[in-house]
């Protein structure tokens, strides 16, 4: 039934309730936004968060997305997110998106904006 629904047809076969809710929230204007995350391999990943989301909410959404993706594809069993956030910045329009308590809209991030991972420079 979901495969025939034009709003939900792009969801994966082993869909979770959270993914269904995200799809519905995207279709309801003003509830959620889709942030495109650019990974190192020039691939964009669409992450859905509510409009009032903070940077920490975005990080958690990225984590949930990657964990679901790894389960479905049978890839790496464990990703050290402490290492990821210690090694990489999220960057939007050349500005580091660092403060976990700030809202995404404070950085100017809107629907379909691109956020990239940037490797942190080591200090000597």
What are the salient characteristics of this protein?
124 residues; globular; transmembrane; Ubiquitin-like_dom; SNRNP25_ubiquitin; SNRNP25
Order of helices and strands: HEEHHEEE
Assign the CATH architecture: Roll
Low-confidence stretches: none
Structural class: alpha+beta
Number of strands: 5
* Highest-level CATH class: Alpha Beta
- Radius of gyration, Cα only, in angstroms? 15 Å
Kindly report the CATH topology: Ubiquitin-like (UB roll)
Main beta sheet? 5 strands, mixed
Query: Which oligomeric state applies?
Result: single chain
* Number of alpha- plus pi-helical segments: 3
Mean pLDDT: 80
Strand content: 15-25%
Number of domains: 1
From the N-terminal CA to the C-terminal CA, the straight-line distance is: 58 Å
CATH superfamily grouping: Phosphatidylinositol 3-kinase Catalytic Subunit, Chain A, domain 1
- Order of adjacent strands in the largest pleated sheet: 2-1-5-3-4
Q: Any idea what the shape is?
A: globular
């Amino acid at each position: 039934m979901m495969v025939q629904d034009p709003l939900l047809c792009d969801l994966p076969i082993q869909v979770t309730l959270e993914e269904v809710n995200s799809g519905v929230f995207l279709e309801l204007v003003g509830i959620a936004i889709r942030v495109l995350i650019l990974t190192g391999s020039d691939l964009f990943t669409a992450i859905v968060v509510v409009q009032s989301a903070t940077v920490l909410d975005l990080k958690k959404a990225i984590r949930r997305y990657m964990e679901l993706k790894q389960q479905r594809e049978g890839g790496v069993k464990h990703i050290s997110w402490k290492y990821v956030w210690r090694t990489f910045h999220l960057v939007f329009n050349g500005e580091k998106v660092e403060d976990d308590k700030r809202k995404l809209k404070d950085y100017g991030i809107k629907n379909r904006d691109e956020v990239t991972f940037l490797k942190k420079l080591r200090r000597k």
